[in-house]
Amino acid sequence: MLDSTTEQNLSGLKEDLKKMENSNKKESMANILFKIDALKFGVHQLQNGKASPYYVDLRVIPSFPDAFHEICDFYDQTITKQTGLKNFDRIAAIPLAGIPFASQIAYNLKKPFLYVRKGIELSGRDRRVEGVLASGDKVLLVDDLVMTGLTLKNAADAVRAEGGVVTEAVVFLDREEGGAELLVKNGIKLHSLLKISDVASALFEMGAIDRESLKAIQKQVKKP
């Protein structure tokens, strides 16, 4: 159940989405993430045990159809402009959070959809990728966010082990903690729709977060 603050924030969500076309889209999306409670500030402990001054849960986005539609459209535009539809044959999702985004994007762009199976060892005989994948197929990886880049790197290894070719990946949010650099070392160019430093700056300008929260996030960002 949504709390009262989130419900109040949602009242203006459709209006914000309508304004997107006439404003900075990245700033509008940062505001939407804040309004749907996908982005929370304050000290949080991540699954890897690391403390973070903010918490991102993009898994809630598909529960808000208007926001989900706009974000998937933003993915489509970014992929079309930065990657080019002729430069990949298939789209592969990173489970679990990347699946709803990747499946919708694949449908929108009329590309075959795959997903990488979670927890399958590369040395085993089990199939690592679900879907039709032929040797030499160029596969675009899609996930919701990137932190260290290890999850995307492992997914690329799995696709490559099945004969696919991976040179690019797309995420909605880059936490800027070394993920892009790790992927480059493994032959993968990362495209991100948003960077956490830009999101924090936009929210600070809107008055949604204070300077202390802004500085905490900027300190968390790993400089390349």
| Structural class computed from helices and strand pairing | alpha/beta
Cα gyration radius (Å): 18 Å
* Strand order, largest beta sheet: 5-4-3-6-7-8
CATH topology, by name, is Rossmann fold
Q: How many structural domains in the coordinates?
A: 1
Strand content: 15-25%
| CATH architecture tag | 3-Layer(aba) Sandwich
What spatial form do the alpha-carbon principal axes imply? globular
Major sheet description: 6 strands, mixed
Total number of strands = 8
CATH top level? Alpha Beta
**Helix-strand sequence:** HHHEEHEHEEEHEHEHH
Low-confidence stretches: none
Helix content: 40-55%
How many helices does DSSP assign?
9
Distance from N terminus to C terminus (CA atoms, Å) equals 40 Å
Average of pLDDT: 87
Please supply descriptive tags for the structure shown above:
224 residues; alpha/beta; Rossmann fold; 9 helices; 22% strand
Question: Can you describe what's shown?
Answer:
This protein is an alpha/beta fold. Helix 7 links the parallel strand 7 and strand 8. Helices cover 43% and strands 22% of the residues. The N and C termini lie far apart (40 Å). Helix 3 packs across helix 8 and helix 8 runs antiparallel to helix 9. The strands form two sheets. Strands 5-4-3-6-7-8 form a six-stranded mixed β-sheet, sandwiched between helices. Strands 1-2 form a two-stranded antiparallel sheet.
Topology:
Layout: H1 4-10, H2 13-19, H3 25-35, E1 39-45, E2 51-56, H4 65-83, E3 90-93, H5 98-109, E4 113-116, E5 129-130, E6 138-146, H6 150-161, E7 165-174, H7 179-185, E8 189-195, H8 196-206, H9 211-220
Parallel strand pairs: 3-4, 3-6, 6-7, 7-8
Antiparallel strand pairs: 1-2, 4-5
